[in-house]
Predict the 3D structure of the following.
Amino acid sequence: MGIDIETARFMLARRRQGASFARSACLGRQHFFLGHTETRGLLREFGLDPAATPELFSQTYPDYADAFWKLLGAKETTVFDASDFEGATRVHDMNQPIADELKQAFDVVCDIGTLEHVFNFPVAVRNCMEMTKVGGHCFCVSPANNAFGHGFYQFSPELYFRVFSPENGFQMERCVAVEYGARTRWFEVIDPKTAGARVTLINTSTVTLLVWAKRIRAVPLFQTSPQQSDYSATWARSAAADPKKEPAARPTTLQSLQRAVLESVPGFARVLDRLRYSRFNRNFSLANRRSFVALSKKD
């Protein structure tokens, strides 16, 4: 677990926008994975003087990120972990509910690469949400694509949009997909509910989600279980339809053609399917502007 240059840039941008890190909670004690040259460049990018934070320039690599939390404005940082082998300040298994005393105790709760390793994700993310005070923020850095076997899970943007929802007292402020390819690219992710379709991606590089959500009010969490937005929309349309007035749908010309090809040359039909559901289809790529909007890192 650790803070790389993209995560550091995102957090510094939130600091610049006025987010409070005064009382911070972090799942796991983070390492700081920036070299000295990268650190100086990033600080100058945000108008900060590298000479004012000499503790960021440790001779140990990687060092723990304690100095970076102080730079963000943390006056108190509580580190949660299932064991104390890396110096956690609070030993707690996130598979289990947190104590009442920790609810609404923090200005920001940060998961930087932990939730994918926790089997009981619903309990763990609920803990993060409950620990966040009203007006504070939850920050998650999670694997989205091409991290097969890294943890128990890889996450879709839809999961976070449905979890950090107004029904649960949260407002999604930023959901950014970072593609770690030959060059690192940032994309704002559109809520599938807004896009009216699933936000899907098939690519060849690792993609990480940076999720920043604000707690706008304290309400009981998950009174109804999150559902994928396309299913919810389909169910709503079905419930509103009058089966007595709705004629049975006839196959479209395309559907008829697909069936004919499948029946006559099934092997060829399956090859076409594999091409359709691949990175060569714009609808499954970061070039799909219905789902992704390219960002400048300086945004």
User: Anything to note?
Assistant: The chain has one domain: 2-215. The longest strand covers residues 132-145. The first helix runs from residue 5 to 16. The two ends are 25 Å apart (CA to CA).
